[in-house]
């Protein structure tokens, strides 16, 4: 608990840091001041952060988002908390608030303030009264007469609102659900037992809006009821101020609400992390293997072993949804293998569940770097779990991109909670590719074994039996195409994070092309791993985006993507193929892509330091690598024949 | 009168919420003549005061709390230690 003099001291430090334009110091002290839980401190931090908006972007790489709040309730007092929570998660929001009663008009009218705002993020905050105002009356007796119809109409109105906006704009959408009401005439027992009690019906309304969001591109459902239940629904609303000022919930929940809201929209702007590296001693199991021996370590169904067992089960569940697991531990590998064999019945994981084992006495930061190389993933997609504060600090200093979760030796039962409180694995969708990722990485290991035994590269690649299947980016499915655009960093020529609506525009407009490629070989199916967006205008076809998941780099898929877009361009009457490379911190692996494929570099660079290239298609039509087997839209024979006629 | 007559914690709340200098927060400061003191900031101010001092105002009384001195009186009558 901060004392008043401590608060004054922190405020003075924040003011000094604002004056010195030191964004990191402002955030550090704000973080501490906010622990007071006082609204005045949230307001103070909000003002300071707003003054530092530019510096947060420049110094800390915060993402700036023009944001529009469509609302039917009073949100203004909550704005400082939104500013603060967004900044803590790395966002600077430029917020515009819509009118109280005009939410429908804003969403439907092409001339509305929302339509003209060009917002990148639209948050829809409506109360039950607006979404389904008839429900409380219809649910009063719990018999359900007329409830189905009202639900149908309510969801229909929400759908019309969201789709109407989506048909014209590409801003990412968040719509919040309703909090399950308390104080109903049926009381605790009736609410629980009657199928059509108000809480049961509102629960169903929420689920239906959530599945609606699933079907609309770039739209996420925000389950405000989960937040309310987390702090206690009974204290969620300050009835006095809801009735007097339409304040949707009590002031002491502003921060929790905004934190969850930011977490919800984050999935549309940030790629989730992909790898969890866990320590063994006092993390995956209790005790120290080297001292306690395989039979002395704590794991299994009895306390405290079951604390570790629940963590292992949680990891197993993460792995099932596509998070890769790895062990990073200072131990003797033979001892670890022995422990996994001897204690198999008490462990929820086997060594086969891990895609990487880094068991040695070397530096853990080095182990993480090696894993990143072996898995072809950036360190910023890694999470590191360890009980040792010295190891955690070393990682923080040597590989700051890695996210750290500290396991507590004294309270081993808290680890699952700590891990699930972190947003870094959040995703609104889980694709087929996610689910199979772990197997695919295992196959990768087998491929590299074969590579070492093959005589030359072409022979090795032919022996893999790689099949590339081209599909429409809208059928990849579209969600996967957007996921690739959002997540691919290394082999991504322009790193444009297009929305689903943008991809649709490329696919549908004349001369446009939006294609994805799916790759499989004799070891496994990598799924949809590449994407190209291009547009032919007159005799020039311009490649807007061309990207490839780093898992399949070096197998000729990138050349095949280029050949594909080139042949489509020729069919559309183009004679020149234009490409662009925008350098980022991460995409060096594709820096020479265009020059490697015979493109000429243009002398004038673009606005953002991008480099332009062109290729004369009349004499230099890119071809498919001969070791690839091609499938899907536009076979190579067809494309080949058009090449001859040009 | 001057801003020294307003206790520091209270002065800070007014200054932060209304985005004015702490020196401008005198007992006479009122909603009518302070540009930033609109209805939303008023609600924000009331929420900040309630959160800071652990009190609750009667919604009927809230619209009348339009000067610093009235707010000081109201807080005192609720037993808040400023």
Secondary structure elements and their pairing?
The complex is a heterodimer of chains A (646) and B (82).
Chain A: H1 4-19, H2 23-33, H3 39-51, H4 53-60, E1 63-71, H5 79-88, E2 91-97, H6 103-108, H7 113-117, E3 121-125, H8 128-132, H9 135-138, H10 147-168, E4 172-176, H11 187-193, H12 198-215, E5 219-222, H13 224-231, H14 239-245, H15 254-266, E6 275-278, H16 289-292, H17 305-320, E7 324-329, H18 333-342, E8 356-359, H19 364-375, E9 382-386, H20 389-398, E10 403-406, H21 415-420, H22 432-435, H23 437-453, H24 457-464, E11 467-472, H25 478-487, E12 491-492, H26 500-508, E13 512-521, E14 524-537, E15 540-548, H27 557-571, E16 576-581, H28 593-596, E17 600-601, E18 611-616, E19 629-632, H29 636-645
Parallel strand pairs in A: 1-2, 1-3, 3-4, 4-5, 6-7, 6-9, 7-8, 9-10, 11-19, 15-16
Antiparallel strand pairs in A: 11-13, 12-15, 13-14, 14-15, 16-18, 17-18
Helix pairs in contact in A: 1-2, 1-3, 2-3, 3-5, 5-15, 10-12, 13-15, 23-24, 27-29
Chain B: H1 8-18, H2 39-53, H3 68-77
Helix pairs in contact in B: 1-2
Give structural notes.
The complex is a heterodimer of chains A (646) and B (82). With 646 residues, chain A is an alpha/beta fold. Chain A has three domains: 62-266, 3-Layer(aba) Sandwich (Rossmann fold), CATH 3.40.50.1110; 275-420, 3-Layer(aba) Sandwich (Rossmann fold); 434-645, Gcn5-related N-acetyltransferase (GNAT) (Aminopeptidase), CATH 3.40.630.30. Helices cover 45% and strands 17% of the residues of chain A. In chain A, the strands form three sheets. In chain A, strands 11, 12, 13, 14, 15, 16, 17, 18 and 19 form a nine-stranded mixed sheet that branches. In chain A, strands 2-1-3-4-5 form a five-stranded parallel sheet. The longest helix of chain A has 22 residues, at 147-168. Chain B is mainly alpha-helical and 82 residues long. Chain B starts with 7 loop residues before the first helix and ends in a 5-residue tail after the last helix. The mean pLDDT of chain B is 90.
């Amino acid at each position: 608990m901060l004392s008043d003099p401590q608060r004054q001291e922190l405020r003075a430090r924040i003011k000094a840091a604002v004056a010195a334009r030191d964004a990191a110091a402002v955030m550090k002290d704000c973080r501490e001041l906010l622990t007071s839980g006082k609204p005045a401190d949230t307001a103070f931090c909000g003002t300071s952060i707003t003054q530092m908006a530019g510096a947060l972007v420049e110094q800390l790489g915060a993402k700036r988002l023009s944001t529009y709040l469509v609302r039917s309730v009073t949100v203004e007092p909550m704005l400082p908390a939104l500013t603060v929570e967004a900044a803590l998660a790395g966002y600077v929001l430029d917020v515009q608030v819509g009118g109280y009663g005009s939410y429908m008009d804003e969403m439907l009218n092409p001339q509305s303030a929302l339509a003209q705002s060009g917002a990148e993020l639209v948050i829809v905050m409506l109360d039950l009264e607006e979404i389904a105002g008839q429900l409380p009356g219809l649910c009063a007796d719990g018999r359900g007469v007329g409830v189905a119809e009202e639900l149908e109409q309510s969801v229909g109105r929400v759908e019309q609102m969201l789709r109407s906006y989506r048909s014209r704009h590409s801003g990412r959408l968040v719509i919040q659900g309703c909090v399950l009401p308390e104080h109903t005439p049926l009381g605790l027992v009736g609410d629980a037992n009657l199928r059509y009690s108000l809480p049961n019906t509102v629960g169903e309304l929420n689920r239906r809006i959530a599945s609606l969001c699933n079907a609309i591109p770039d739209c996420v459902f925000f389950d405000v009821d989960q937040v309310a239940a987390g702090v206690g629904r009974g204290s969620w609303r300050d009835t006095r101020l809801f009735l007097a000022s339409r304040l949707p919930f009590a002031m002491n929940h502003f921060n929790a609400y905004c934190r969850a809201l930011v977490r919800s929209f984050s999935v549309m702007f940030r790629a989730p992390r992909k790898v969890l590296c866990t320590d063994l001693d006092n993390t995956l199991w209790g005790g120290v293997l080297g001292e306690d021996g395989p039979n002395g370590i704590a794991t299994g169904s009895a306390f405290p072993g079951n604390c570790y067992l629940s963590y292992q089960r949680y990891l197993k569940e993460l792995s099932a949804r596509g998070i890769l697991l790895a062990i990073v531990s200072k131990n003797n590998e033979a001892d670890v293998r022995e422990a996994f064999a001897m204690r198999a019945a008490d462990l929820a994981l086997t060594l086969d569940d891990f895609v990487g084992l880094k068991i040695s006495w070397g530096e853990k930061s080095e182990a993480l770097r090696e894993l990143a190389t072996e898995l072809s993933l950036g360190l910023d997609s890694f999470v590191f779990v360890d009980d040792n504060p010295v190891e955690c600090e070393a990682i923080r200093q040597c590989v700051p991109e890695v996210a750290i979760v500290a396991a507590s030796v004294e309270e081993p039962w808290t680890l699952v909670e700590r891990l699930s409180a972190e947003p870094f694995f959040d995703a609104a969708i889980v694709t087929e590719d996610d689910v199979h990722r772990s197997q695919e990485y295992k196959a990768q290991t087998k491929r590299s074994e074969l590579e070492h035994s093959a005589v030359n590269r072409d022979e090795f690649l032919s022996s893999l039996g790689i099949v590339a299947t081209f599909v429409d980016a809208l059928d990849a499915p579209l969600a996967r195409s957007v996921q690739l655009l959002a997540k691919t960093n290394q082999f991504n020529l322009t790193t444009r994070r297009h929305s689903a609506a943008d991809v649709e525009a490329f696919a549908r407009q004349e001369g446009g092309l939006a294609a994805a490629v799916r790759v499989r070989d004799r070891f496994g199916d990598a799924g949809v791993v590449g994407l190209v967006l291009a547009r032919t205008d007159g005799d020039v076809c311009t490649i807007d985006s061309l990207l490839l998941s780093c898992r399949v780099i070096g197998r000729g898929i990138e050349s095949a993507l280029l050949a594909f877009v080139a042949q489509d361009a020729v069919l559309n009457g183009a004679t020149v193929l234009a490409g662009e490379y925008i350098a980022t911190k991460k995409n060096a692996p594709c820096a020479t892509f265009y020059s490697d494929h015979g493109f000429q570099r243009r002398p004038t660079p673009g606005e953002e330091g991008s480099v332009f290239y062109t290729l004369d298609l009349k004499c230099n039509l890119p071809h498919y690598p001969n070791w690839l087997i091609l499938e899907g839209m536009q076979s190579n024979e067809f494309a080949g024949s058009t090449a001859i006629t040009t | 009168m001057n801003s020294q007559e307003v206790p520091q914690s209270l002065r800070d709340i007014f200054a932060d919420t209304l985005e004015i200098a702490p020196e401008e927060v005198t007992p006479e400061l009122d909603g009518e003549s302070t540009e930033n003191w609109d209805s939303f900031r008023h609600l924000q101010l009331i929420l900040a005061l309630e959160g800071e001092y652990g009190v609750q105002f009667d919604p009927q009384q809230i619209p009348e709390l339009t000067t610093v001195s009235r707010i000081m009186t109201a807080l005192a009558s609720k037993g808040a230690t400023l």
